[in-house]
């Protein structure tokens, strides 16, 4: 990870310097879509094709539901096999999809990678991913994804999209060896995404159109029902349907159901609200059993804050969100520590599981810390591990920054009811109703003094005493970029029932599918697997359509 960053900076490119973390988004990333188009009050039931009447009826080979990351390669893959494709999305256009706000994708054996010696092979990647996910993911599917992974990112490369290839600088770490990093952000990407479709006239794009139902004939899915922005309902008969609507992070009930009651602050497209998964479930598909997230690596989040999560300094976000990046003491709602705090700042994106378990968690600092943080450059508070975790593009935001507004930001958090200041730990414990806090702070301070933490084994460099009042406590929720975990599939992304049968003509890709396992695998893998799964589903669906 470091290697991408260092060499990229030498090349003088800030965008390139992102170490495949999740960067490039401002808090208002999806502002282009301020007005949510009118939508049908759908219950996403699977309906009998023959029984549904609609003013307009159409036919196609393949319908792709969702034109985000996986929808793009799904449509392209099916079209390249000769199919007529209709691709449908609720958003207003490419500018409102997650595709314009990401940093980079992890792929294997793309046309660019194979130009360099020692390129990452499918076997190496397979073994690395299986071990990295503790052998919990669908091995057949991973194998097949790796087979198409390089060709998937080639679809983007061939659009002319400016990308940086960290492996071209001789990087040897895993992240860099698979890294394909965007060199343009936001709206600048739209013409290249559009070109992918312009190059394939057999795909028709339909924006601001919602798929409300899958249509069935017996067990088989034979089409979709859609409603456009003007309320027109269309029945489309299709030989194959691919659902790729991006998971369910925006759906509070589904998040609580699949994440043990937790709440997650969503940082993605508002339409990643689980509609696709509900369409699939109602058609008989089975949800998988493994769920994970990739967590906000810039600190934390809180539903009560505006904006709800943090970004680099100067972007209008509350600086108290950065505290977890400094390795400060973290406690749960009972006032107990629950993790080695080093992990929160050195592997923030991967700390999701431990934070999710608590759902709400807190940090606590004393006056000495506040004095220091308000007068000392932030960079001095970030350990080497934390810097590597963030990547240079994020780190650049902290360059030369002193958090001299920290008291104002803290007061803002107090006024929004997610922070509290008190002269004693007892008062804080009472305010937040934390029975164990006083004892926890005593034990923690003793560890700070001795340099040995026998509770969570946090290293001495991250043990920061909480001794001199007044004390400042901040409450956090977990912020996430996407949900990882979805509908079970076979090795080629056919949606499956609970008894392991494939539902005829129905395919799943991207975050709607059970592609990953707990734990989150590594930076760039979300996007990489979404592009790859889109292509695999598109090609499988095309073969089915042409039978
Ligand atoms: C800000 C941000 C930065 C990120 N950066 C990275 C990164 O650098 N690297 C990385 O690996 N991952 C990154 N991710 C994660 C990555 O973006 C996701 O993994 C990816 O977008 C998921 O792709 P998808 O195709 O499953 O869903 P999406 O790309 O979200 O596409 C789903 C589409 O379905 C549409 N839709 C939903 N319901 C319906 C319906 N009923 N009918 C029609 N259309 C519907 C939505 O409008 C949406 O456009 C980032 C995520 C965010 C939010």
Question: How many strands, which pairing sense, and closed or not: the largest β-sheet?
Answer: 9 strands, mixed
**Overall radius of gyration:** 24 Å
Number of domains: 2
- Provide the helix percentage: 25-40%
Structure summary, number of beta strands: 18
Give the overall shape, derived from the CA principal axes: globular
How many helical stretches? Answer: 17
Structural class comes to: alpha/beta
**Ligand catalogue:** flavin-adenine dinucleotide
pLDDT averaged residue by residue: 90
Q: What's the name of the CATH homologous superfamily of the largest domain? A: FAD/NAD(P)-binding domain
First and last CA, distance: 45 Å
CATH domain fold name of the largest domain? FAD/NAD(P)-binding domain
Percentage of residues in strands: 15-25%
User: Stretches where pLDDT falls below 50 for ≥5 residues?
Assistant: 1-19, 21-34
Corresponding CATH architecture of the largest domain: 3-Layer(bba) Sandwich
Q: What oligomeric state best describes the polypeptide chains here?
A: single chain
What is the level 1 CATH name of the largest domain? Answer: Alpha Beta
């Amino acid at each position: 990870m470091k290697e991408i960053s260092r060499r990229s900076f030498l090349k003088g490119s800030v965008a390139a310097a992102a170490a495949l973390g999740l960067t490039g988004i401002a808090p208002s990333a999806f502002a282009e879509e301020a007005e949510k188009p009118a939508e049908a009050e759908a219950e996403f039931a699977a309906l009998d094709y023959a029984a549904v009447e609609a003013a307009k009826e159409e036919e196609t080979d393949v319908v792709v539901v969702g034109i985000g990351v996986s929808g793009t390669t799904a449509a392209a893959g099916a079209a390249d096999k000769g199919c007529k494709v209709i691709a449908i999305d609720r958003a207003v256009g490419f500018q409102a999809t997650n595709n314009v706000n990401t940093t980079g994708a992890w792929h294997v054996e793309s046309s660019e990678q194979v130009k360099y010696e020692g390129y990452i092979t499918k076997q190496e990647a397979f073994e690395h991913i299986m071990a990295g996910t503790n052998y919990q993911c669908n091995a057949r599917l991973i194998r097949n994804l790796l087979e198409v992974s390089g060709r998937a990112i080639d679809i983007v490369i061939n659009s002319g999209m400016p990308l940086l290839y960290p492996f071209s600088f001789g990087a040897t770490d895993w992240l860099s060896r698979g890294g394909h990093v965007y060199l343009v952000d936001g709206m600048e990407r739209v013409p290249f995404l559009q070109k992918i479709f312009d190059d394939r006239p057999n795909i028709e794009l339909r924006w601001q159109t919602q798929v409300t139902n899958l249509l069935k004939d017996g067990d088989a899915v034979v089409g979709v029902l859609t409603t456009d922005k003007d309320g027109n309902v269309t029945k489309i008969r299709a030989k194959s349907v691919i659902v790729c609507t991006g998971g369910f992070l925006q759906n509070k009930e589904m998040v609580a159901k699949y994440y043990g009651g937790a709440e997650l602050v969503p940082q993605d497209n508002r339409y990643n609200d689980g509609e696709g998964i509900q369409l699939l479930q109602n058609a008989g598909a089975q949800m998988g059993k493994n769920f994970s997230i990739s967590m906000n690596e810039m600190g934390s989040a809180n539903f009560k804050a505006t904006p709800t999560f943090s970004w680099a300094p100067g972007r209008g976000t509350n600086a108290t969100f950065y505290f977890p990046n400094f390795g400060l003491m973290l406690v749960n709602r009972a006032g107990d520590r629950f993790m080695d705090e080093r992990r929160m700042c050195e592997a923030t994106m991967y700390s999701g599981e431990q934070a999710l378990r608590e759902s709400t968690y807190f940090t606590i600092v004393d006056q000495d810390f506040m004095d220091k943080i308000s007068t000392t450059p932030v960079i001095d508070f970030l350990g080497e591990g934390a810097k590597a975790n963030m990547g240079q593009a994020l780190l650049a935001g902290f360059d030369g920054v002193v958090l001299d507004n920290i008291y104002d930001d803290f007061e803002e958090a107090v006024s929004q009811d997610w922070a509290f200041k008190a002269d004693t730990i007892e008062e804080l414990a009472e305010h937040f109703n934390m029975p164990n806090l006083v004892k926890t702070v005593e034990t923690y301070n003793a560890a700070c003094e001795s340099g040995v933490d026998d509770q969570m084994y946090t290293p001495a460099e991250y043990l920061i005493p909480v001794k001199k009042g007044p004390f400042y406590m901040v409450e956090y929720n977990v912020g996430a970029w996407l949900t990882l975990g979805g509908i079970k599939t076979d090795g080629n992304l056919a949606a499956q029932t609970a008894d392991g049968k494939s539902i005829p003509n129905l395919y799943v890709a991207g975050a709607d599918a059970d592609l990953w396992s707990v734990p989150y695998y590594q930076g760039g893998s979300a996007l990489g697997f979404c592009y790859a799964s889109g292509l695999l589903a598109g090609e499988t669906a095309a073969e089915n359509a042409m039978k």
